[in-house]
Amino acid sequence: MLLTIAASFMVLATTATAIFQLAIVFGAPLGEYSYGGANKGKLPTGYRIGSVFSFALMIAFAGHYLAQLGVFDPIFDPAGNSIVNWVLVASNALAALANNATRSKKERAVWGVTTILMFVASLVVALQL
Predict the structure, then answer these.
(1) Neighbours of 48 (CB within 10 A)
(2) Where residue 41 falls among pLDDT bands split at 50, 70, 90?
(3) What is the pTM of this model?
(4) For the chain, how far is it from start to end, CA to CA, in angstroms?
């Protein structure tokens, strides 16, 4: 039950993050809420290109968690799946640290709690609770 809740939350959170990154790619004025918050409004091209990669990663992460829920067939064997789960825990830990250490109050307000919850949920999935 807890595993299902955690994996479902990760699908929703990574999909929402992907949509946020896609909005940046298309020029949404979200600079204060991303990449340290130093750029107000529409982000420069370099950041928008970075958001293309972030979008793709978040979609891949959502797919991985959908496989955890049995919606998709897993790509990896159980050992490989476990490794991916722990890589995602580490990735979410780094995201939580970065988003909670930023000087941007607006970025922390949007992503601070969200990234901590993503870290905890990914840990629950990795531990198979």
Answers:
(1) 16
(2) very high
(3) 0.91
(4) 8
